[in-house]
Design a protein that fits this description.
13% strand; alpha/beta; Rossmann fold; N-(1-d-carboxylethyl)-l-norvaline Dehydrogenase, domain 2; 2 domains; 55% helix; 9 strands
Length: 295
């Protein structure tokens, strides 16, 4: 059987390497994004650059979207030039953006009227996970659509789980972002504490990583902390958005997030200080400022 034709909308830090991994896996990928250089990158990798969303999705069997937030998903999905008006009935629309659960539920309902199937499938693993095709993919939707999408997901990630009905993937992603933010904050506080105590930081992080304090966050972000390298793998701006999603969703269901609420404010503070474009490991800068350093 021939592989399905894929349209990819959104070629940012995550979308570009993910689409390229599908090309490497043998898929015919047509992409669209607003940045010309990203389209050139896709074409250089063996994909096809489209001039519009309509052109990209018209002949696609599967449409994958990876854009920053709910407003962008709505902008590319709806309207005369959007996905729902231009994709064929029977198309599978996989939204891999991190958005509110309700946005995903609404998208699935509106797409159903057009005969289009939808999965919400946000990911975790950051830029490195996207490049290495080892992402964790948390999916919401129907079992049959999940089964149809599984080969595509397997070219992008290693942990692939159907979490429940539409919106469930986004709910699990919100929980993921809560855990990641709190974990980074704890690591950042530990780094400042260790350095101010005169301990060899690299040695300390190595031994901490081998014990109960070890985590994927510490393993992935250790060099960021050691080298003060905050080139964005996942920007503070986006994590700020995600913390808003999880705190709002938790309020809706009546779940208390006392530590998460504090970390959400710390993320917001860092963004307000002009660090929104930095990697979320830059939470270290906020702890350093609170500890008296000039950064």
């Amino acid at each position: 059987m021939s592989l399905p034709k894929i349209a990819w909308i959104g070629l940012g830090i995550m979308g570009s390497p993910m689409s390229e991994n599908l090309i490497k896996a043998g898929y015919d990928v047509t992409g669209y994004t607003l940045e010309r250089e990203k389209l050139d990158r896709l074409a250089a990798a063996g994909g096809t650059a489209a001039a519009s969303i309509a052109e990209a999705v018209r002949d696609a069997d599967v449409v994958i979207t990876m854009v920053p937030a709910s407003p962008q998903v709505e902008a590319i999905a709806y309207g005369p030039d959007g996905i729902l008006e231009n994709a064929r009935p029977g198309t599978l629309l996989i939204d891999m953006s991190s958005i509110t659960p309700q946005t995903s539920v609404d998208l699935a309902q509106n797409a159903k009227e057009k005969g289009i199937h939808v999965l919400d499938a946000p990911v975790s693993g950051g830029e490195a996970g996207a490049v290495e095709a080892v992402l964790s993919i948390m999916v919401g939707g129907e079992q049959a659509d999940f089964d149809r999408a599984r080969p595509v997901f397997e070219a992008l990630g290693k942990t692939i789980v159907l979490c429940g009905p539409h919106g469930s993937g986004q709910t699990v992603k919100a929980a993921n972002q809560l855990i990641v933010a709190v974990n980074i904050q704890a690591c950042a506080e530990a780094v400042v504490f260790l350095e101010k105590s005169g301990v060899d930081l690299k040695a300390a992080l190595d031994v901490l990583g081998g014990g109960l304090a070890g985590s994927t966050v510490l393993a992935r972000k250790k060099d960021n902390f050691l080298n003060r390298d905050f080139q964005p793998g996942f920007r503070i701006d986006l994590h700020h958005k995600d913390m808003g999603i999880v705190t709002d969703a938790a309020r809706t269901v009546g779940a208390a997030l006392p530590v998460g609420a504090v970390v959400a404010q710390l993320v917001a503070s860092l963004r307000a200080q002009g660090d929104g474009g930095l990697d979320h490991s830059a939470l270290l800068r906020a702890v350093e400022r609170l500890s008296g350093a000039q950064v």
